[in-house]
Amino acid sequence: MDVKTLCLGVLSRADASGYEIKKAFEEGPFRHFHQASFGSIYPALNALSAEGLVEVRALAQDKRPDKKIYSLAPKGRNALLAALMTNPAPDAVRSDFLFILSFAQYLPPARVEQLINARIAWYREMLTRMEGCTSEDPAGARFVRGIGIAVYRAAADYLESHRDELLAAIGDGDLQVAE
Amino acid sequence: MDVKTLCLGVLSRADASGYEIKKAFEEGPFRHFHQASFGSIYPALNALSAEGLVEVRALAQDKRPDKKIYSLAPKGRNALLAALMTNPAPDAVRSDFLFILSFAQYLPPARVEQLINARIAWYREMLTRMEGCTSEDPAGARFVRGIGIAVYRAAADYLESHRDELLAAIGDGDLQVAE
DNA sequence: GGTTGCATGTAAATGGTTACATGATTGT
DNA sequence: ACAATCATGTAACCATTTACATGCAACC
User: Fold this and answer.
1) How far, in Å, is the CA of B159 from the C1' of nucleotide C14?
2) Could you report how far apart the first and last alpha carbons of chain B are, in Å?
């Protein structure tokens, strides 16, 4: 699923500028399972526009570049639907956090503790935000948010309830630098 | 965290060939949070070898290319430790599954149901494998496996207990192709 | 007879990110 | 003064994947 399709998805929810689409990937509901930067969003939007999948209207603003508001064209809606009907590629998770923790026994316990605590705090903050979200989203978005909440809560709970066990297991042995 | 560091991590657990490292990312414990293909592993191994971070010994085999067994050199161990002490980049999840589900209301319920059922089956299979893993792993690996089990279980349970609710919400409205 | 597994490697193509360029406004 | 927010866009760079090249053995 490329950035073009992702943009169509965002636009299906509401008209938006490139800048606003970027925010959807930074702060919006998509942030948890997809990401895109300006360098990919702006060219994608231009391509979509050239293909007639989206429409643009320029919104003049004082002392700022015109804001280009994109909206989904009927052809774009069909393209999105077609993409939604393809088999999803397997999920890809890249977590340096889990990779590092896999080698906890080589690390100073203080570092492991700090890593885990920071992660718990992050999950709890996300949970507060996601649970406080009382907007009447469409059914799909509500369902996906529910998965996110369930998963983040499970992860935070596990970290909290097993942290001390891990810390005890790796003891207070120092960082073992060979040589 | 690049493929070179990932390879050092795999080699810290046991000596391995490029082919075996690939398997660690396909079937091993790392598969859930990092991935790498031959096209990146083999060059990485050559670079690590040139830098003196790993050592190679060729294992002759009949009717097959020599198997090159790599092992972590002291310099490599230090490089790994240094990498483990850096701040982990934020987790990056790419899930077409969740993206597609976000738009469940546009899709035929049968498709949504099939998508969810397949995913539940996948989680349950992974859980069986992970729970059946009774090896005496180091503390870090055990802890990380515990997180994986907790998270997959939470996801599978949520999907199972909210599937019918979602299906009911999207009704039996047909695929809405505009125009 | 075709696929899968073993085993290594390269080159081209991909699909992005990062950094740069520009610039006013608002907050600290 | 400095950073952040708003706003768009390009180009260089990057890491990685995909496809190719090679070839035998075992299984179905």
Assistant:
1) 34
2) 47
Which A residues 13-42 touch B at CB under 8 Å?
29-30, 32-35
Q: Which two tokens stand for residue B129?
A: 């494998």
Q: What is the distance in angstroms between the Cα of B167 and the nearest Cα belonging to chain A? A: 9
Nearest C-alpha neighbor of A114 from the set B121, B32, B85: B85
> Does B119 contact A at CB distance below 8 Å?
no
- Rounded distance between C-alpha atoms, residue A171 and residue A159, angstroms: 17
DSSP classification of residue B33: T
Q: Quick one: how far is CA A43 from the chain centroid? A: 21
Contact A101, A170 (CB under 8 A): no
Strand A92-94, strand B54-59: pairing: unpaired
On whether the CB atoms of residues B112 and B30 are closer than 8 A, the answer is no
Dihedral (CA of A167, A168, A173, A176) sign: negative
Q: How far apart are CA A170 and CA A111, in angstroms?
A: 12
What angle, rounded to 10 degrees, do the helices at A38-50 and A18-26 form?
130
Q: Is B179 on the interface with A (CB under 8 A)?
A: yes
DSSP letters, A7-40, are HHHHHHHS-B-HHHHHHHHHTSGGGGT----HHH
Copy the structure tokens of residue B39.
Answer: 């096209």
Q: What is the pTM of this model?
A: 0.92
Q: Which two tokens stand for residue B178?
A: 């505009």
3-state secondary structure at position B71: strand
A69 is written with which tokens?
A: 């508001």
* Closest residue, chain B, to A141 (C-alpha): B102
Determine, for residues B29 and A102 on separate chains, whether the beta-carbon distance falls below 8 Å: yes
For A170, phi then psi, to 5°, come to -90, 0
Rounded-to-integer distance, Cα A44 and Cα A50, Å? 10
Q: Which pLDDT tens digit goes with each residue over B55-70?
A: 999 988 777 778 999 9
Which token pair is A87?
């088999």
Write out pLDDT tens, residues A97-155.
999 999 999 999 999 999 999 999 999 999 999 998 877 889 999 999 999 999 999 99
State how far residue A24 is from chain B, nearest Cα, in angstroms.
13
